[in-house]
Every structure is written in structure tokens, then in C-alpha cells.
Write a structure and sequence with these properties.
CATH superfamily of the largest domain: NAD(P)-binding Rossmann-like Domain
Helix content: 40-55%
CATH class of the largest domain: Alpha Beta
Distance between the termini: 61 Å
Length: about 325
């Protein structure tokens, strides 16, 4: 049996690793002491918005704080925050066996490259998690929206495809992961809107004022990407450049036209909102910050995304994070 490890186990890592273990895979979780205490007390409970649920008792979990526990892993899933990629890679370099395969399941565009820079002897693949996962109660991780794991196509994945498929996490392999990552980043521009709303994702997306802010942020990003001739993968029923138009329609029309987009657990929220609530630094710099960097490289500005980045940084420092849709629209778009 191949051995799979999750380095940086948090909401995504515990959910993906837990589903793999629940389906029979040998899984090691590497995480912080705080998480270890939670899992020791509560075990690991997993569920999704379709009603599936599983529980792994604490005694059955292979949880460690030390990266030395990765020594036997055939596959390592990296789920640390993007800002920690370089540090994580340095730790992994001293712990992995020579033939271990590494997959980055992180937000942002450059994590696989950051890992590979410190792991020249290993194959490092870019991956993407399209669905939302939140810790609803201690040790209970819930998938609140749809999607399949995406990963850079590689022959070495053959040894692991069955394990992921049996776990209900069938891998979608892509030759052009940059197109996938950019398309996912466009969707993730909503993380800031959701975090500043303080509302569940479904409630936020059902309100046109919030959607207008997201539409403006996406439109700004899409224009810059088109100028760069950057392809975008089709991750939703609509092509990426059509989504801003859909977001702007009246609420009644949106509820009908975007029924699949609203197929979200009523309590699901963005990871950025979770970070703000927990007093943690968010990943705004690898989301809206990436659009600002794209604009700067083109000698342009990205005022919508810049304002959202500013407001999230202010929220990280104790600033407001309960904006109504109308208030946020006025603050970001300067409209009445």
C-alpha cells in the first residue's frame, strides 16, 4: 500500500487526508500542536453538502508535529498557507525520501515553483482544490461546495489515482495548470468580498450589491489577463469572461440562472473569513495582490482589487468585517 502524507494539515489538509484514510489509504497528517490536541480530543469527522459523513476515531489517526514522520511517504500533499511555501520546502527537503512525489494543494499561482526550488530531486506538481471546506465544530471538517481536485498531468499519478477515486476525490489532470490556477484565482477573488461581509457564502452571493463588487474585481482581472494572452480554464458551466455579466443581473434572475453556482451549503464560508475570525493572517496577498502585481507589470492599476486588499488588511488589524452589500459597493466602486 502506498503511503500518503499531508504537510500543513488544516481544513483542506484534514478533509482531503481524512477522506483518503476513510477510503482505506494509509495517511499521515503533519500539523500544529493545536490541531493535534483537537484531533486527540474529538477524532476527525468529515462531511459534505450531499449528506455524506464519516468519523475517524483519534486512536486511528496518524498525526504528527515533526516532519520526520514524512520519511516513508510516497506522496506528500502540501496544504500550508502560500506565504509559508518556501519554509515548508526547506523542511521537506530534509525529510522526504528521494522518490517521493509532491503535490501543492494551495491557493495562489507560484507555490509549486517555490516548493520545487528547494526540492530539485523531487517531482513537484501544481494542484488545485476547487471546493470550500470549513471546520464547523472542533475536529469536524465540512465540504460546502462542489468540485474535483485538479492536478498537473504526470505519469507518476498512476500509482495514486485509485486511492483518490475511492475517496470520492477523483483527480482531474490538466496539461496547462496555469490556466486552471488563474481561473480558480478569479473565483477566489470572492474570498475578500465574503470575508468583509461576515456572511455565509450562499447568503452573500444571493445579494446583488456584493456580486457587483465581485463582478468588478473579476472584470478588472480578466482585462489584464486578456492583455497578457493568458488562457483561462473553464471551471464552471460558463466561461470565465461571462461570469461578471451573470453576477450583475437582478437577484431573482440570478437565483434561476446561477442555480448551480448557489448549490452551496447554507453555512459554508470562505477560508479568508475563517482566518479573520481566528485572528490569522489571510491570503489576500496571493489573491487580490496577484492582480495588483499583474497590473503593475503592465504599467496599469487595479483599483477595485487594490481597495479590497486594503479593506482586508484593515480587517486583519481589527478593522471592520461586517460590511453590508451597499456599503461595500459604495466603498469599493465609489457608486451610490
Amino acid at each position: 500500500m502506498t503511503s500518503i502524507a499531508v504537510f500543513g494539515a488544516g481544513s483542506i489538509g484534514c478533509y482531503v487526508g481524512g477522506r483518503l484514510q476513510a477510503a482505506g489509504a494509509a495517511v499521515t497528517l503533519i500539523g500544529r500542536p493545536r490541531l493535534g490536541e483537537v484531533l486527540q480530543s474529538h477524532g476527525l469527522t468529515l462531511s459534505d453538502y450531499h449528506g455524506w459523513e464519516a468519523h475517524i476515531p483519534a486512536a486511528a489517526l496518524n498525526f504528527h508535529q515533526d516532519a520526520a514522520a514524512l520519511a516513508a511517504a510516497d506522496l506528500v500533499l502540501v496544504t500550508v498557507k502560500s506565504a509559508d511555501s518556501a519554509t515548508a520546502a526547506q523542511t521537506l527537503a530534509g525529510a522526504l525520501k528521494p522518490d517521493a512525489l509532491v503535490i501543492s494543494l494551495q491557493n495562489g499561482l507560484h507555490n509549486a515553483e517555490a516548493l520545487a526550488a528547494h526540492l530539485p530531486q523531487h517531482t513537484v506538481l501544481a494542484g488545485m482544490v476547487p471546493f470550500n471546506v470549513a471546520q464547523t465544530t472542533p475536529g469536524h471538517f465540512h465540504q460546502g461546495s462542489e468540485g474535483f481536485l485538479a492536478v498537473q498531468a504526470d505519469a507518476r499519478l498512476a500509482a495514486f489515482r485509485q486511492a483518490f477515486a475511492q475517496a470520492g476525490l477523483a483527480l482531474e489532470e490538466h496539461a496547462d495548470m496555469k490556466a486552471v490556477q488563474w481561473a480558480k484565482l478569479l473565483l477566489n477573488l470572492n474570498n475578500a468580498v465574503n470575508a468583509l461581509s461576515g456572511l455565509p457564502l450562499k447568503t452573500e452571493l444571493e445579494q446583488r450589491d456584493y456580486r457587483q463588487v465581485l463582478a468588478a474585481a473579476q472584470k478588472e482581472a480578466i482585462a489584464l489577463l486578456q492583455e497578457k494572452n493568458q488562457p483561462l480554464a473553464k471551471l464552471t458551466p460558463l466561461p470565465a469572461h461571462w461570469i461578471p455579466k451573470l453576477l450583475r443581473v437582478p437577484d431573482a434572475v440570478f437565483r434561476i440562472a446561477a442555480k448551480k453556482m448557489l448549490a452551496i451549503d447554507p453555512l459554508a464560508r470562505s477560508s479568508m473569513q475563517d482566518d479573520l475570525n481566528a485572528g490569522r493572517k489571510t491570503e489576500i496577498d496571493v489573491l487580490q495582490g496577484e492582480i495588483m502585481a499583474l497590473a503593475a507589470a503592465a504599467g496599469k492599476s487595479a483599483p477595485v482589487n487594490a481597495k479590497l486588499l486594503q479593506l482586508v488588511h484593515e480587517a486583519e488589524s481589527g478593522g471592520r468585517r461586517n460590511w453590508s452589500g451597499a456599503e461595500l459597493r459604495r466603498a469599493v466602486l465609489n457608486t451610490q
